Amino acid sequence: MSFKDKVIYQIYPKSFYDSNNDGVGDLRGIIEKVPYLSKLNIDMIWFSPFFVSPQYDSGYDIADYYKIDPIFGTMADFDELVKTLKKHNIGVMLDMVLNHTSTEHEWFQKALTGDKNYQDFYYIRDPKPNGDLPTNWESKFGGSAWAKFGDTGKYYLHLYEKRQADLNWHNPDVRKELYKVVNFWYDRGVENFRFDVINVTGKDKELVDYTPGTNPKLIYTDTPIVQDYLKELNHATFGKNPESVTVGEMSTTSIKNSIEYTRPENHELSMVFTFHHLKVDYDHGQKWTKTPFDFKLLKKILNDWQLGMSEGGGWNALFWNNHDQPWAINRFGDPIHFRNKSAEMLATTIHLLRGTPYIYQGEEIGMTDPDYQSIEEYVDVETLNAYQQLIANGKTADEAFAIIKSKSRDNSRTPMQWDNTKYAGFSQSTPWLKPTTQKEINVAKELSEGEIFSYYQKLISLRKKLRIISEGSYEPFIMEHESVFGYVRKLNSQTLLVLNNFYGKETHVKVPSEYLTQDFSVIINNYSEKINLTSDVELKPYQSVAFLIS
Ligand code: NOJ
After folding, report:
1. Each residue's pLDDT tens digit, 309-341
2. CA-based, 20 to 30 A from 441: which of 191, 211, 353, 434?
3. For the Glycosyl hydrolase family 13 catalytic domain, which residue ranges apply (predicted)?
């Protein structure tokens, strides 16, 4: 239970700080920045993968689970990083990508040479009798989910990039090998883990076509056997330590299943990442579209998950940003006119909810999407495939580019901006991905004259200080309001009323008499003017305020 008052920070090592000036971030770079991280008072850092990888999917295509990729450093650097963080009371969470390996992984290579044991590590299938691909499944990164397995005439399954082959979790030897990986890192001092797309591990043994017209992902996602796999994983690895914090990245999951994944009695995971709330700017459920976000839907989803998980005894990870998402300020705030206020409002919204908040590197200084001018500036494989696909589907180059610009994963992968120099103080040589907004947004400026970083410090300290934030129940409030997401947290005789204005216009909130008392305090407010708890509270553009009523 110890994770309820914790705040976790995500580092994308490629883009955090480059200590050896090769244009790519590294572990020694992170060590140098530990004092900065410690100022924020975060409890733990989730590191995106830095294991040996050809980097076709930026490290989520692992070729050796047991070694640090030389572009990031050495095992000695890793050990020093863990030690340094521990000295600052910061825990380590590693990213375990156990659904698939790189096709350069030894297991896949052995399978290719004809080793039957290793062929059974993957989903390798014959074409259909008529020569069609084994199933009609699509890769999440575009095109079919099947690729030729050498010159055998067979195909292997890849739900992601074609150089990421899906592992066959039905094979007990596969699971044993994967648990060995987790234990290897556990024994090196890592207690906490994030499990990448862990709910697509439960594919059937017999793979069949999905029915056109149905959601194609449902045939392999969130199947009941995932719960068994997670129980087994828990038991075989981190479960021995009640202090371990784990989070499963869940694709297209449900509240019902997420309760099961995270109820402590089930001994599966501490919490889950779910993405429904980030799909509210998808047109007809399609990511590669450009459309304003649907505020009513966003509220409904946040509310449904808060209520559902709370009633079922589950636990949610709370987040807006990560290395797969464009910046939330660009999607749900106003990066031009109200960058500070909208950054703070978004932060307040999730930090005071029930769950464990995550901060993605750069969020604490209000980073925004880069201003790229051409598709050549993008690197991410999913983005480049989507661009080709959009053109193939009839979009003009300008239309396709506008969509890419709003949705690309590279938006949040640009280097952390430490200062206003050419390479943003990230490196002395050309970074692997170009920063463009460092003149306005950088750590040096933020720490000397900004307000977002200190606002995050305040939110983090509030979660540690007030049990109503870490432990309280959740109740909806003014669900029908056009521009405010409000909610109530309760613990014993205390009530916390949180109001967040999601728009750049002033608005009013009618507060029912049951909340009106002289005995209240404002625990946080992103404007300096005094605000009172009255029957008619006026909120300024992107204002957030939380009233604690005793
Ligand atoms: C989710 C990761 O966050 C993403 O970056 C990656 O491409 C896929 N899983 C596949 O590993």
Report:
1. 999 999 999 999 999 999 999 999 999 999 999
2. 353
3. 10-413
Residue 97 Cα: closest atom of ligand 1: 11
Residue entry with tokens 């769950």? 355
**Residue-wise pLDDT tens digits, 256-298:** 999 999 999 999 999 999 999 999 999 999 999 999 999 999 9
For 457-509, the three-class secondary structure string (H helix, E strand, C coil) is HHHHHHHHHCHHHHHCEEEEECCCCCCEEEEEEEECCEEEEEEEECCCCCEEE
- pTM more than 0.90: yes
The best mutation among 53, 57, 195 to test binding of ligand 1, ranked by most ligand atoms within 8 Å of the C-beta, falls on: 57
How many angstroms separate the CA atoms of 89 and 281, rounded? 38
Ligand 1, closest atom to CA 100? 11
C-alpha of residue 443 to centroid of ligand 1, in Å: 27
Q: Does any ligand 1 atom lie closer than 6 A to the CB of residue 197?
A: yes
Q: Is residue 232 part of a domain?
A: yes
Q: Which of 92, 117, 118 is nearest to 107 (CA)?
A: 118
Q: Which domain holds residue 504?
A: 470-549
Ligand 1 touching residue 60 (CB < 6 A): yes
CA atoms of 359 and 345, how far apart (whole Å): 14
Q: Cβ–Cβ contacts within 10 Å for residue 463, how many?
A: 21
**pLDDT profile of the chain (550 residues), mean per 10:** 91 98 98 98 98 97 98 98 98 98 98 98 98 97 96 98 98 98 97 98 96 94 98 98 97 97 98 98 96 98 98 97 98 98 99 98 98 97 97 98 98 98 98 98 98 98 98 97 98 97 98 95 98 98 97
pLDDT computed for residue 354 by the predictor? 98
395 and 492 fall within a common domain: no
CB of 549 closer than 6 angstroms to any ligand 1 atom: no
Q: How far is the CA of 260 from the centre of ligand 1 (A)?
A: 23
Pair (448, 494) in one structural domain:
no
Q: Are residues 145 and 216 in the same domain?
A: no
Task: Give 8 Cα–ligand 1 centroid separation in angstroms.
Answer: 19
Q: Are residues 227 and 301 in the same domain?
A: yes
To test the pocket of ligand 1, the residue of 11, 198, 324 to mutate (highest count of ligand atoms within 8 Å of its CB) is 324
Cα 110 to middle of ligand 1, angstroms: 24
Query: Which ligand 1 atom minimizes the distance to the CA of 57?
Result: 7
Cα–Cα distance for residue pair 280/144, rounded to 1 Å: 26
Which pLDDT score is estimated for 543? Answer: 99
Residues labelled catalytic: 196, 249
Distance 342 CA to ligand 1 centre (A): 27
Give me the CATH number covering residue 517. Answer: 2.60.40.1180
In a domain, residue 205? The reply is yes
325 with 282, same domain: the answer is yes
pLDDT at site 2: 78
Q: What total of structural domains would you count in the chain?
A: 3
Q: Is the CB of 160 under 6 A from ligand 1?
A: yes
Contact (CB, 8 A) for 405 and 413:
no
97 touches ligand 1 (CB under 6 Å): yes
- Residues 154 and 125: beta-carbon distance below 8 Å: yes
